[in-house]
Protein 1
Amino acid sequence: MSIPGLGQIAPTAVQTTTSAAVSPTTTQSLEPFWEYRFEVAHGSTLNIKLVSGTAEKDGTELAPSTPYAFTATKTRINTWHGCTLEISSEPGAVYDAYTSEPTADETPMVSYVNLHFKLDGLRATAERTGQMGPRVLVIGPPNSGKTSLVRMLTGWATRVGRQPLVVNADCREGMLALPGTLSAAVFATIIDPTSEWGSTPSSGPSPVPVKLPLAYYYGMASPDDNPRFFKRLLSRLAVASTSRLTEDPGVKTSGMLIDSGGVNAKGGYDHIAHIVAEFSVNIVLVVGSERVGSEMQKRFAGQQTSLGETITVVGLDKSGGVVERDAGFMQQVREAAIREYFFGSSKTTLSPFTQQMDFAALSMWKVNQAPTASDEDSYSEAIEKAEPSLMMQNCTLAVMYATVHDTAETIRDSNVMGFVYVAEVDEKRRKLKVLAPVSARLGDRPLLWGSWPEPMVSLVG
Amino acid sequence: MTSYSESEAVAEDFREALEDVNTNDRHEISNLTLIARENTEHALAISGALVDHIKRIAPHKKLPSLYVLDSIVKNVGTPYTLFFGRKLYHTFMDAYAMVDMGTRRKMDEMLKTWKEPVPGSIDTRPVFPPDVVRPIENALIKVRTTALQQHQAHMKSQQQLLGRGRPTAQGMPYRETPTPPGARPPPQAHGYQLPNHSTNGMSYGQPTQPLPPNYQSHPNMPFPSRSTPQPMPSSSAFQPPPVGGYGMSQAGISTGSLNDDIQRLITAFKAQIAQAPHDPTIQTRLKALVDLQTILQTQNLPQDQLVLVKNQISDLAVTIRASPAQPPTPIPKAQPVAVAPPPPAAAPKVSLDSLFGSGALAALMARSSSTPQVSTPQPPPATVATRSPPPQRAEPQKAAAATPDPMALMNMLRQAGMLPPPTPAVATTPVPISTPVPVPTPSLPFPIPLPIPGATMGNQSRRPVTMETFTGDIALKASSLKQFRPQLLPFLFEAQGPQCTQCGRRFARDEKGKRKKTAHMDWHFKVNQRIAEAEKRGQHRSWLVDEVDWINTRETIDKDHAGHPGDSDAASGGSASKAAKVEYIPVPDDAALAASVCPICQDRFETRWLDDAQEFVWADAMKVGERIYHASCHREATKDGGNTPMVFARSTPEPVLGKRKAEQDELSSVRGKMKTEFA
Ligand SMILES: [Zn+2]
Ligand SMILES: [Zn+2]
């Protein structure tokens, strides 16, 4: 792929891998368009403070002279005006950092921010005419920076007073909910720069306003595991999102930003078309793949949304710094999400509760894989009753907004109330020990058991 | 339904037809007007094509195209007036900046007629509403005033320099064929004006209408009405009238010599790039130079700022000499750079917009809106009359009401890294370029200072006006998106006001912004207070809300929630008392209890996120024993009995069996509604 402006050469990247033991505090100066890219290991913390200039992390501006503690992350801080950062870490902290030094012609950030301004123009038009703001879907191959782009567009939108409804249609990763869910949330306030998406409500106050997600449980890693179920949940999410959008004026003008899972090489465009249709997507952003871009162009050329708008497909370069995040790292990220759900972060410590439950008192359902299911029958069996077993040990179950008396269909279509973690299964005494976020009994809420996120051994012990 | 491609095709035809309009040929103009009239459904595309054309074509060809615009708005009217109106300021001012004096006069005349109704039309409204025309007028008045003042100042103090200056016109290709006003066939100002404004009465080629008297009068025109060809140095877009045959050369530093220097440097840098094509530093500097050149050619900069520019150029000259990659030939001073004007194709580059992106001029002007000489306030939008209801018209461009302020311009340059930060005392003597100042590398000043406080864009009018206007040129295409538009960045930064030191959010400096900031700081304060308390108490993750509650949730931003639950109790509960304001309970953690309904009315409780308490609460709820009631229901049921047991005066009997049923009915009805409406 050609680099805009200068052809063949890649943005200058100066490797400055830092050995934390040598210099705990360093100063990093960035010129306009440069980025400070860093990876911090699990268990290590990197503190970054903006000393002068302006700086952003995924569209959210850093406050001046305020230390931000990053842990277990691969991310970057960019600047439009130039800045000086003060970087410090505990001795022995493991992290890797370098500056990327592109020019305005080289950085895809220019396209991204222009996109934001264009969207904000469209939102202004929507505001004036009482129409719906743009519904934007971001797709692309894995590791092309889709989520980062969605987060950037979200951050910029809230900065200018918009309230976009952000949808996560990527079941592999969670947004304000655990992996395996599809979720949506309105972002009206800033995202904590040290987090992916911020945190969900807890019983105590949060220094950064919490975001309230609506989540549906899919419980599998790939849309291909049960395509019909996946699409069904997307439709549920679309109905609820559209309702919110229609009834909430600030959200209506701001529109939607939809993050999708990576499109794989052998197609997988089927659920993309479904998202476009269900969410009335009118702008499709294709990041980092001209091939996928032209596929999408072909697919949606001449098509219109349910509102009669033309569907526009836009190709975007991926950020040069998007690194392949290996499977091990991603698993650590998922485990960190589960840990944070129950125990909170370094900023806010949460205390979950353990409960003993009789098998008999439980309404347990298993999410089934059905990769080739195409008929309504196998689809309605997307979930089936399951007897608690040792298989569930170390698994995270979804607590559903339904009752044990509801039909399988109702339970399947319900949204997620929360999660419990199965700490211990005693098949002899037919008892289950779970970790729950709150102390009260679960009552007659059905629990759904899927294969994603994968069992996590080290949560309690 | 109008398809995009159809519009594109029509616009393409229109564009081709436009290419043929090189003179003020009445027939061609009429023909294009007819096309526009017959294709009003493609008005957006057509107007876009025309505006682009005006922007793109060589200065000496701009006038005919402007006449096309003029003809369309007068003979067709809406929707063209709306579409042109949005960009009229840029269209007009950009063209004005580039054309010669004669054309400027024609444009002045044209502008005047836009303030009037179409002659002979029954429509008494002006061609363009005042809010579209006035910013242009204001800008022109400012230009003339500045020009006049500079001229007078010059006359007073610099008489000895008479004749010394030289008209420099580098990079101004249209000087190649100096076209004195009147040398061209007279365009018969508005002679092509179609006599009948109504649809069926288009009689092309009819004798021209007598011009309204005001067409010829120009009370505001300080330009001397000279009939002789004017050797105008057009290097400055808004420049004073030429007097005595000399151009812009003023006291101290002459823009002309600066231009020469810059041109030499540009040539030198280009040579360097040929040697090291991938050195981004050189690219950056070259761009800075080209931009600088443009600024010089299009703006009148005061002396002290010219000194800054000059210093900057000297610095750059040093680097290019010191540069190891320096090619043998291009030594700045020594090399006589081709002074020949570039090919005409380069002409459109002169406009600020073509360098900084569309809207740059307006952005600059918006920045300078704090300068005192802003003219009379805009009339209220109510006086704006549109000729036909939809589409909605663009709001008045408040941002454009002011005129270019060199200070703002310099700030923008500084922000873009082209100029150093303001220096306290500036030498009044120019630094000769032959005396290299020992400054190391004039790389981008770092960190680049943000613009001066108070020079922010009008926060009040930031939306919806500005975003639509300012982003109008961005197309959802890779090529358009890749173009850096520094003029838009302030919308994310300084235009939003200063940052909250705790979280980095920005708050405008105006009254509304101050109120928001106060509420925001209160929020920080309360939350910080509560965090300390919560840590002692112990915290846990909350359950999420269900679909219906989520849909009904509204985000709250730094709202002061004292009494918030009570506010809507007043709406639902009837007896809104102060007591009711605190009647909420945290949503029960107990999942079974969380599903309960009010025993009195069988309704569910309204879940709200109480920002102040940072938790979910049930509004208008109270716990009596182990049961939860609506506070209002409970009050109603017990108001005359005190301790008497509940008297359920509900029409629904079966309170026990009906509970689950009522809840489910409600849920399914909402879901049903969602399905029918949005599925
Ligand atoms: Zn704050
Ligand atoms: Zn009640």
Protein 2
Amino acid sequence: MRFSGWRVLKEGLTGNKGWSPHWRNPDPKTEYDIVIIGGGGHGLATAFYLAKEHGLTNVAVLEKGYLGGGNVGRNTTIVRANYYLPGNSEFYSHSMKLWEGLEQELNYNVMHSQRGIINLFHSDGQRDAAVRRGNAMRNQGDDAHLLGRDELRKMLPYLDFDTARFPIYGGLYHPRGGTARHDAVAWGYARGADERGVDLIQNCEVTGIDISNGQVTGVQTTRGAIRAKKVAMVAAGRSSQVAEMAGMRLPIESHILQAYVTEGLKPFIDHVVTFGMSHFYISQSDKGGLVFGGDLDFYASYAARGNLPGKEQVMEAAMTLMPAIGKARVLRSWGGIMDMSPDGSPIIDHTHIGGLYLNTGWCYGGFKAVPASGFALAHLIATDRPHASAEKLRLDRFETGYGLLDEEGTGAQHNLH
Amino acid sequence: MRLTCPNCGERDIREFTYQGAASMLDRPDPEAGPEAWHAYLHLRDNPAGVTRDLWHHGCGCGAWLVVTRDTVTHAVHAVELVEARDAG
Ligand SMILES: Cc1cc2nc3c(=O)[nH]c(=O)nc-3n(C[C@H](O)[C@H](O)[C@H](O)COP(=O)(O)OP(=O)(O)OC[C@H]3O[C@@H](n4cnc5c(N)ncnc54)[C@H](O)[C@@H]3O)c2cc1C
Ligand SMILES: [Zn+2]
């Protein structure tokens, strides 16, 4: 079934009776060439690119809940390519290029909106850091502009520019950054993978990974044993539990990150805006809700809900930056389980076990990475060589100390990112 | 979430700073070799369930605490002084 404006019109006029389910709901077969553990954004994108780029379709995605029920459906949907370090820079740049063609490629409206991101700065030191980052972005071939206070005032008149404590000096503007509809990204990749023959198997929890003579041979699941030549662990916040089934301990701690949305308001915030003095960022959804978030709660958690101090930090920052927000009522808040790595950057690599691959460490930034991560992991699985855009996202960088990707420069230590 | 500090009693979580897994207390011997140090610095059990982690009561008595709690329910089972552990 192809989507088009014409089709929407036709279905609208004929009672919407012609739509069919977006994917099949197959029972698991007893054997696949490739099994992907985790039906989040990264798992689904991996399956899609395995089929599309490499013609590998004897593939299953095993999801313990429902497709898109994890972080891919819980994030605040920001898509950007404003990383500084080589390794991250080319990877997120590649992701942005894939985003820009994604709706055509998937024939699916993921509501990708390049409304621009503005990172505010509030001191001379922060301005220098923004200039440096902007130059790195431009060297990578992406876009960045330094905005002064006066230009910014015209674009973002609703900010409090003159708070005594954190006056706004300017902002780093990344016009190609923006947002996308998170669920639609999961659904679009799911539909594209299913169409090409991949089996998407929901309510199927992996409970064991079978290994013999250092080689993966399959998985145990709540829906029976499944043999596989290759297995990819793509479980985001649950990565440690899945890797444990293969006898591995990962450099990962799972933390909680909360997000918030207000009641629907008239258009008010046109960009994604981030505060430079406390962790806070905001955008307005197409439905009108203000979507915002801030720091981790900063303790290991799998609860998918946060505590009040996290909320307090975010609300205080919001009120400092844009006092007008005080009039909006918060509709909902929720949390997701973040796979935090010691340096704050991801891992896409093979493991020491033959045929077993690992995709993890997305921290709070893995939504924007979905296309490039799926693309790179599919390449790695299909060819057993890393894709050029992701070859620095190695698992052994903590052990060797070589090629750490510490964007914040705080040290490759847990609990610092 | 509230923690009951053995010195100060039950307190708001904002008084504490989280450090991470209590395995940080089991520092390997300086000569233990790179694998042991890598495991100590970077690798984590990261359990979904009961865990033991280190918290600092910075806005209270200043003690380091080992908290036994559940990462799925946020229930707190025990709070002990690191000092007591080291003495015992
Ligand atoms: C509040 C919040 C805000 C965020 N904001 C942003 C943002 O603005 N921009 C951005 O780029 N990123 C953001 N992120 C991060 C981003 O959402 C994640 O990094 C990314 O979604 C993780 O990858 P995923 O989609 O594959 O994860 P998930 O969707 O969590 O997928 C993992 C899947 O694995 C499944 N699974 C786990 N264990 C098993 C098992 N044993 N067997 C079978 N299946 C299993 C889970 O059920 C889950 O569906 C945010 C995250 C949160 C929580
Ligand atoms: Zn105390």
